[in-house]
Amino acid sequence: MKYVIMFTSTPELDAAVSPEHAEQVYRRVYEWFGTHADRITDSGAELQPVTTATTVTHSGGAPVVTDGPFSEAKEVIGGFSVIDVDDLDAAIAMVKTWPMLELPGNSVEIRPMVVDYSHMEQ
Amino acid sequence: MSETDAAVPDPDGLRAAASDRLLAGVLREESARIVAALTGWLGSLDLAEESVAEAIEEALREWRTRGVPPNPGGWLTQAARHNALDRIRREKRYREKLALLAEPETAAPERGADEPDERLPLLFGCCHPALSPDAQLALTLRAICGLTTAQIAHATLTPESTIAQRIVRAKRKIGATGIPLRIPEGAERAQRLDIVLTVVSVMYTEAHLVAGGDATADRDLADDAIWLARVVAHELPGEAEAHGLLALLLFHRAREGARAVEGELVLLAEQDRTRWDRALILEAHAVLERAAMLRRPGRWQLHAAIAACHTDAPDGGATDWLQVLTLYDMLRAYDRSPIVRLNRAVALAEIDGPRAALDEVDALRDDLAAYHLWHAVRARMLRGLGRDDEAMAEDLCALELTANEAERRLLAARAGR
Question: How do A62-67 and A2-9 pair as beta strands?
Answer without folding.
Answer: unpaired
